[in-house]
Structures are given as C-alpha cells and as structure tokens.
Amino acid sequence: VTAEKGGFDHFMLKEIHEQPKAYRDTMLGRIDASGRKVVLPGLKLTDDKIRSINSIHVVACGTAYHAGLVGGTAIEQLVRVPVAFDVASEYRYRSPLITPETLVIVVSQSGETADTLAALREAQANGAHVLAVTNVVGSSIARDADDVIATLAGPEIAVASTKAYTSQLIAFYLLALYMAQVRGTKSPEEVAHVIAAMQSLPEQVESMLANTDAIKTYAEQIAKHEHLFFIGRGLDYAVVQEGSLKLKEISYIHSEAYAAGELKHGTLALIEEGIPVIALATQDSVLEKTVSNIKEVKARGADVMAITHEEHVAGLLRSVDQAFAIPQTLPLLTPALSVVPLQLLAYYASLERGNDVDKPRNLAKSVTVE
Ligand code: G6P
User: Fold this and answer.
1) Under a CB-based contact definition with an 8 Å cutoff, are residues 56 and 72 in contact?
2) Spatial CB neighbours of 216, under 8 Å, sequence gap ≥ 6
3) Which of 69, 87, 249, 365 to mutate to test the pocket of ligand 1 (most atoms within 8 A of CB)?
4) φ and ψ at 272, to 5 degrees?
C-alpha cells in the first residue's frame, strides 16, 4: 500500500476527514445544473423497469449492511415500495421471494465480499435486476451486477469503514430521489428540497470535524468500561448499529445497539449503576418516546450521553448527563451527520486503549470466504 496518511496518525482518522470530499465526489455529476433533479448517467434500470418494481431487497455485510438499513429506509419513505433487509450470509438460506419485479440492491465497499457476491448470483438466477452500490468499479460485484452506482470515496485502507459507509448513504439518497422522480411519489419541489439539504452536508461534516475535543474526552471516559449500550429509534437505531459495530471492531469494548423502545423487553436487566448509554436522539417524530426510554435507563443508574440537534440540547440536558449537538438537517439525511461523532468515539476509544486502530485483531478489510 502506497497510500499515505496525509499528516494524520492513522488511516481511519484520515478517512473520517475525507468524508466531506467523498460526499461531494459521490454527488458530482448526479445532480443536474438546476440543482433540482437527480440524474444517474449510465443507469441501465429503465423508467419502465423502475415503475414495475414491486419489492426491493437490500443485501450486504457489516458496515455496508448498516448503510443499507438507512438507504433502504430512504427508498421506502420516498418511493413507497416495500424494502426487505438481509445480511448476505443469511439471504440465500431463507428462500427469499425473488421475482423479475424485485430490485436487489447489494452494497459492498470492496465489491469482493464472498457472501454478497453469492447473494447477487442467487438474485440474478431468480430473474431480479441487481444494482450494486460499490466503491470499487473493477470489482467482481461491479462486474457481475446489472447496474452499478459507484461511491466515490477513494481507496479505504483502515479496516473499520467510515467514508465508504457515508458515501453509500449519499448513493442511496440519490437513488431514492431518482426513483421518486420516475414514479412521481415526490413532487419536483420536494426533490429539490432534499437535494439542497444534501448539498449542505459536506460543509456540515467539516464543521463537526473542526472541533472534536469533547468527543475525544468522552471517548477517554468510556475507554475504561467493558460494556456499554447504544439506543435510538427509527433511523437513529440504524445509525447506532453502525456506531456499536465501529466501537467493537477497534476498541474491543462490548456494546449493544438497541431499538430504544425494545430495551425494556429484556435488556434493561443489564443496566446497572454507572454503565454508559449513548442515546442518539435526532428524529423529531420520536424524540419524546426516546426521552422516555432515556429516563428508564437513568432511573437504573446509567450514565447517559445524548447526541441530538442543537435546538434539543437544552431540553435533553434535563434527562441526560451530557449532550452533543450535531448540525440541523432533514430527518432522512441526519445519518450522514450523526454517524460522524460515533466514528470519532470509536477511534479515540481505540487510541486510548492502545489498540492498533487501522488493523484490529481478527478482522480483514474484505472477506472473500463464505
Ligand atoms: C469486512 C470488513 C467490514 C465490512 C464488511 C463488508 O468484514 O471488516 O468493515 O463492512 O467486510 O465489506 P464490503 O467490502 O462488502 O463492504
């Protein structure tokens, strides 16, 4: 590997900082000159085909799967087609209902993950159109898929994926908007509104990366713990699953990500005095419900840190021990911002524990065996 760390201590930190550029590059040429319409040059999926799709399967592994959770939700919300999510190693074995009217979206940074490639083949064998979201255009998955939406994150070296994940989110948002245009499920004004918000994301990430001291201090605090929990609802739940994976991968702290409302159905038994709970609370429509769940863990002694929009910080501070603000954006786009402090949290916790941040034990950048 000849890639350099560009002045950063680790590839992971470099790649976290490359996210604004990755967002811009992934949007480049895919929004028309008016800034109101998504264009996807080279897409083989015809408008007729897009209109005929009656179900969508999103299939991937690891971090790419987590991007798929957010992306598939965006498609379901904007396009109103049912979306199912599978980890690739399970997909084939549950006899999924795949027809020629199914669009299967496989997500893979490397394009070489064996389980994802096998899922792609299973889908094609059943007549589905397979669209790959991948970062490597010459990869096996890119070659075999019927369509490719490339993420333009540039080479990702650190085993723990960061800029590939966020670029996958951008690719999904573009695809969701494109399909909504074709099917007419969103008005041109609504599409333009989402695009405008997307175009602000790179700068918003830059503003978050300009001051990371508070998250570093918090990471040093949690590095002493062996167990912790993440909670969130809706898209926040999808994002905390990624935050929890990131933390496990490189800090080796055991963490679980829970749908905030599900905690009381068993896992609440594990909440004890002093245990850290990280609550992602950015989705306004369920904020009050998340606050109730925060109170449940607080009452059992948890030490709660919340991540929310600026306007909610003061309110949340009545229920939590500390709160971090992220910039304001549309609820649907929030994952492209809210994951950043979680990436930094994992990075600094790993650093504090003296781990090999870029090359965690037992893990490989891409897994080519099933
Ligand atoms: C490996 C990596 C993960 C990655 C997963 C899927 O397990 O360690 O970081 O998310 O593979 O990789 P892919 O290249 O298909 O996105």
Assistant:
1) yes
2) 344, 348
3) 365
4) -135, 175
Both tokens of 82, joined, read 């049912």
Are 241 and 66 spatial neighbours (Cβ–Cβ below 8 Å)? yes
pTM of the model: 0.97
Residues with a known catalytic role: 365
Query: What's the pLDDT tens digit per position in 219-244?
Result: 999 999 999 999 999 999 999 999 99
Q: Which helix (H) or strand (E) holds 338?
A: helix 335-352
Q: Using the predicted structure, report yes or no on whether residue 157 has a pLDDT greater than 60.
A: yes
Residue pair 205/337 in contact (Cβ under 8 Å)? The answer is yes
Question: Rounded to whole angstroms, how far apart are CA atoms 138 and 161?
Answer: 19
Give the three-state DSSP class for 231.
strand
CA atoms within 13 A on the CB side of 217: 8
Over residues 29-54, the mean pLDDT reads 97
The amino acid at 202: P
CB atoms within 10 A of CB 331: 16
Task: Among 15, 105, 106, 110, name the best residue to mutate to test ligand 1's pocket (greatest count of ligand atoms within 8 A of Cβ).
Answer: 110
- Using the atom order of ligand 1, give the atom closest to the CA of residue 60: 15
* Residues at CB less than 6 angstroms from ligand 1: 61-64, 108-110, 113, 116, 159, 161, 363-367
Is the ipTM reported for this complex over the cut 0.90? yes
Helices 188-209 & 335-352, crossing angle to 10 degrees?
20
Cβ neighbour number for residue 88 with a 10 Å cutoff: 26
DSSP per-residue string spanning 107-162: EESSS--HHHHHHHHHHHHTT-EEEEEES-TTSHHHHHSSEEEE-------SSS-S
Nearest-angstrom CA–CA distance, 257 and 279:
10
DSSP characters over 264-321: GGTGGGG--TT-EEEEE---GGGHHHHHHHHHHHHTTT-EEEEEEEHHHHHHHTTTSS
- If one counts every other C-beta atom within 10 angstroms of the C-beta of residue 131, the result is 22
